[in-house]
Amino acid sequence: MRISAITNTALLNNRKNTAQTKHSFKGEYYPSGYYEDYEINIAKQFINQTGDEWKTQHKKNKQTSFSDMYWESGGLNHITSVLTRPFCYDWDEAKTMSRILLDSATCLLWEIANAPFAAAEAGLKKAKENKILNKEVERIGMLICDMKAEKEQQQIAGHIKKIDEILDKTEKSNRVMSYQKSLKDGFSTPVEDEKLGKNAEIPNVIMIEEKNEKLGKELIAYTRKNSQVYFDFVQENEDNIEMMKDLDSKLEKAKEAYDKNGTRTLIEVENFGKLIDNNNPFEHLEWMKGLMTACAEDNKATIIFRTDDSSNYLSEALEPHRIGLKVNC
User: Fold this and answer.
1) DSSP string, 225-287
2) Is 67 left (phi over 0), alpha (psi -120 to 50) or beta?
3) 217-to-191, 198, 206, 309 alpha-carbon distances in Å
4) What are the structural domains of the chain?
5) In this structure, are residues 267 and 251 in contact, taking their beta carbons and an 8 Å threshold?
6) Contact (CB, 8 A) for 58 and 69
7) CA distances from residue 162 to 83, 127, 154, 248 in whole angstroms, order as listed
8) Helices 282-298/240-261 angle, 10° precision
9) Which residues, including other chains, have CB under 8 Å from residue 15's CB and lie 6 or more apart?
10) What is the pLDDT of residue 152?
11) Of 74, 121, 151, 322, which residue is 20 to 30 A from 44 by alpha carbon distance?
12) Which of 239, 244, 255, 243 lies closest to 294, judged by CA?
């Protein structure tokens, strides 16, 4: 396989024209120091040429080192030739001499670019100790290591994010299953037991305290689907009295259905909490307390509702003989 070399005519010309001038000092800061744009560009060119195609080829030639493959490809990517200032008046001759001198340095940078960060860093350190590289080539090597470290950190962060997402999803799934089990054990199973003639305690009211409205509705839907009951719904009304009348009517219908078919009713009441809020008139709260005490026994119905926060509800309304099943999500 022969890998095409990167063309750097513009870069070479730029170095030729600015060989005796100061740099513009445009660039970016990396952990090992501040680097100019042309240095960053060179490092990126090395890194961008690593990839599956090269690695696959190297794997096929197991006894072939990156260095050997470099030579076989005819001197791959001699882009570091721009790193040495011309040391003669003939620019073309200077480029040729520079290329010859820097073949080994280019090869080393190519190996660094293909190695994992830890190995790349170790290889560069060894090269520095053996004084193989001049200062400018050494800077490119350090920059390549910085870029590789940054890329690996991003990959690790991406993996951690995916793991966190999986854990969050698993945790949520486990919590939902726990809530579903509470609803099944506290309502669905007792209803089934009652149908089989067993003694069963049916809750008057089920309260799901969950700020996530979607999850609350899903749990109510789960209870409805997995219980052998009729289902009815009381819509929220700005007028509490009208809402209470609607609820009373649905309870009467539930009693009639049970007397006819022996099947209980589950009644979802939208924003039921407003009817037992401490700010309601005393007589309304007393009526609600009586209703919540006897609906399962007298009307063969259970009320179910979701709330964000029950802290302002009448404390007597929250007692177990009224709200017999609380699911705190």
Assistant:
1) HTSSSEEEEE---SSHHHHHHHHHHHHHHHHHHHHHHS--EEEEETTGGGGGBTTS-HHHHHH
2) alpha
3) 21, 30, 13, 15
4) 9-158 (no CATH), 202-328 (3.40.50.300)
5) yes
6) yes
7) 41, 37, 12, 50
8) 10
9) 38, 82
10) 75
11) 74
12) 255
In degrees and rounded to multiples of 5, residue 268 shows phi and psi of -85, 130
Handedness of CA 244, 250, 256, 257 (dihedral sign): negative
User: What's the count of helices (H) and strands (E) in the chain, helices before strands?
Assistant: 11, 7
pLDDT score of 159: 72
158/257 Cα distance (integer angstroms): 57
In angstroms and rounded to an integer, the radius of gyration of the C-alpha atoms of the chain is 38
The position carrying tokens 């709200």 is 323
**At a CB cut-off of 8 Å and minimum separation 6, what does 73 contact?**
1, 2, 3
- DSSP line for 93-161: HHHHHHHHHHHHHHHHHHHHHHS-HHHHHHHHHHHHHTT-S-HHHHHHHHHHHHHHHHHHHHHHHHHHH
State the pTM of this model. Answer: 0.54
- Paired with 274 in beta bridges are none
φ, ψ dihedrals at 29, nearest 5°: -90, 135
Q: Which two tokens stand for residue 91?
A: 């620019």
